[in-house]
Amino acid sequence: MRVWRARNREANRAYQQAYNREYRRVNRHKLAMQKKAWAQSEAGRESMRKNSARMRGKYPEKVKARSRVSDAVRSGKLTKQPCEVCGSARVQAHHDDYSKPLEVRWLCRTHHNEEGK
């Protein structure tokens, strides 16, 4: 029985991914409200605190670089530019090298995610 389930799951992977994408699109408001409620619960806050502390300990150079960019944008030393790929105005700073915190490329969320892969 288990072998059949695994084989069937592999055969239907594309269908299931498409179904999940459509479900999330149609129910995005409901899912956002559930996520918000969880984030405001004690368990959610504690989980986010632990994850934040773990990430700060594991990647201190990333934290420092992000902080420097945030400070530079706030002070006006660095200005956000449109996405290098598509020209979108909603951008994120991408670091090719965290040891050079103010050398960033401005990418929208989609292209920033693609850059990380």
Description:
The mean pLDDT is 92. The protein is mainly α and 117 residues long. The chain folds into 2 domains: 58 residues, no CATH class; 58 residues, no CATH class. The protein has 6 helices and 2 strands; from the N terminus they run αααααββα. The chain is extended. A two-stranded antiparallel sheet has the order 1-2.
Helix content: 55-70%
Number of helices: 6
Integer count of domains: 2
Structural class: mainly alpha
- Give the uncertain stretches in residue-range form: none
List keywords for this structure.
117 residues; extended; mainly alpha; 6 helices; two-stranded antiparallel sheet; 67% helix
Architecture blueprint of SSEs:
Blueprint: H1 2-11, H2 13-26, H3 28-40, H4 42-58, H5 60-75, E1 92-95, E2 104-107, H6 109-116
Antiparallel strand pairs: 1-2
Briefly characterize the structure.
Helices cover 67% and strands 7% of the residues.
